[in-house]
């Protein structure tokens, strides 16, 4: 089973790039983030015409996540237990955002996640980000003995080498100790990040549009695939598609692709 994640930064703008990527890499399951569209406006027809099934969670032009698969996803959910909501006004209803979608595919529970950005350390969004991660870790702990995968844009650089210049990020989100500790909680819940071991020569997954960061090699590693022990043991390889990131009018994230020996997958394709 080949599973990829990609923060697409608007699926309607880049639908044909997505389909081309699926075909070029023979991807079985693609988890998208920042689709930036409501369910009713998602380009289902294009994916269906290309032979793919789609499960999508989107409510407006912000956030949005999807799972695209060669087989129909089962038991689709649009939130995980205790997932917190958010509103800028602390007195308003803290409604769930379109940041998670999970499904079962060939015996694997797969979640496409767009972790809150945090904005600034003093912003309520930063506290929301941490609460989101804590709740996710509690849920992951209950699934640690099953074939379970969370993947997507985590908006955290867990190590100093995951940013092109640690000093540039001083006092900013993505690199703070609370965020990194929350990421570690995910790993301590029974999950293992499986792509880093195969991508030592491909350091980053995100390059800001500003400042020609991609051309300068100034990126961040903030996209990951965290698998439970039974699934992590079946990981056989991974790569970051930097060629796609270098393409014209593409997303500011590069697709992150990993392979797993899920032996019963081909039988249901």
TrEMBL record:
It holds the Pfam family Exo_endo_phos. GO terms for biological process: DNA repair. Keywords: Hydrolase, Magnesium, Manganese, Metal-binding. Mg(2+) binds at residues 7, 34, 153, 155, 252-253. Residues 6-253 form the Endonuclease/exonuclease/phosphatase domain. Its cofactor is Mg(2+); Mn(2+). One of its GO terms (molecular function) is metal ion binding. The record marks 223 as: Important for catalytic activity. Probably binds two magnesium or manganese ions per subunit. The record marks 253 as: Interaction with DNA substrate. CDD domains: ExoIII-like_AP-endo (cd09086). Its EC number is 3.1.11.2. It comes from the Bacteria. The active site is at residues 114, 153, 253. Belongs to the DNA repair enzymes AP/ExoA family. PANTHER family: EXODEOXYRIBONUCLEASE III (PTHR43250:SF2). This is Exodeoxyribonuclease III. The lineage of its organism: Bacteria, Bacillati, Actinomycetota, Actinomycetes, Mycobacteriales.
């Amino acid at each position: 089973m080949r599973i990829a994640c990609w923060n697409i930064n608007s699926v309607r703008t880049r639908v044909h790039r997505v389909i081309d990527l699926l075909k070029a890499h023979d991807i079985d399951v693609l988890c998208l983030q920042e689709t930036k569209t409501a369910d009713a406006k998602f380009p289902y027809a294009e994916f269906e015409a290309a032979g793919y099934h789609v499960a999508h969670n989107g409510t407006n032009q912000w956030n949005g996540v999807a799972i695209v698969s060669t087989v129909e996803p089962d038991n689709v959910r649009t939130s995980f237990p205790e997932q917190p909501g958010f509103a800028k006004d602390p007195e308003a209803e803290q409604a769930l955002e379109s940041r998670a979608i999970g499904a079962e595919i060939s015996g694997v529970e797969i979640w496409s996640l767009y972790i809150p950005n945090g904005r600034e350390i003093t912003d309520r969004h930063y506290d929301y980000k941490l609460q989101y991660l804590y709740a996710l870790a509690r849920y992951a702990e209950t699934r640690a003995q099953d074939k379970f995968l969370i993947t997507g844009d985590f908006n955290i650089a867990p190590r100093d080498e995951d940013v092109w210049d640690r000093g540039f990020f001083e006092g900013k989100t993505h690199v703070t100790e609370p965020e990194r500790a929350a990421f570690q909680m995910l790993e301590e819940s029974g999950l293992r990040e499986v792509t880093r071991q195969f991508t030592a020569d491909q350091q980053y997954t995100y390059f800001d549009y500003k400042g020609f960061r991609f051309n300068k090699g100034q990126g961040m590693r903030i996209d990951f695939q965290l698998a439970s022990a039974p699934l992590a043991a079946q990981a056989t390889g991974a790569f970051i598609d930097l060629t796609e990131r270098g393409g014209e009018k593409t997303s500011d994230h590069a697709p992150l692709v990993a392979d797993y020996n899920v032996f019963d997958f081909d039988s249901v394709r």
